[in-house]
Design a protein that fits this description.
129 residues; mainly alpha; Arc Repressor Mutant, subunit A; 2 domains; 6 helices; 0% strand
Length: 129
């Protein structure tokens, strides 16, 4: 019999997951609050964070320095986080998703009677609240 040992995450995996989590978080913040940003900051942030352009590519596109783009990205990230700290829309969205998942799970336990509840919860997830 082969003994399996748990796989330990190495430092590189942990760093990669942190970067990925940050990218997902930044994308969610932009989805919720991006329309509150002014141009060209909005476009620069979108190009860098969502479209995965490099600082150099964004700088060239807007005829500014890499440092200027870096500053815009930092300020815009802080502004998006500030909006979330004040409004909590992303937090509320994540919580509602958890509740809907729980409703769906519980409705499946109800059998035939839970089908309508399950269907409604799925519609809310698909169409948003």
């Amino acid at each position: 019999m082969v003994k399996c040992t748990p796989v330990k995450k190495n430092t590189l995996q942990v760093i990669f997951m942190d970067i990925l989590d940050e990218k997902v978080e930044n994308a969610m913040l932009f989805d919720f609050y991006g329309d509150l940003l002014k141009s060209p900051n909005k476009e620069m942030y979108e190009d860098y964070v969502l479209n995965d352009y490099s600082l150099s590519e964004v700088a060239e596109s807007y005829s500014v320095t890499r440092q200027a783009v870096h500053d815009v990205i930092k300020r815009t990230s802080a502004k998006l986080k500030d909006y979330e700290d004040k409004l909590h829309l992303v937090q509320k969205y994540k919580l509602s998703e958890e509740w809907l998942d729980e409703i769906i799970s519980l409705s499946e336990e109800l059998g035939e009677k839970g089908k309508r509840i399950h269907s409604l919860a799925e519609q809310i997830k698909i169409n948003g609240i």
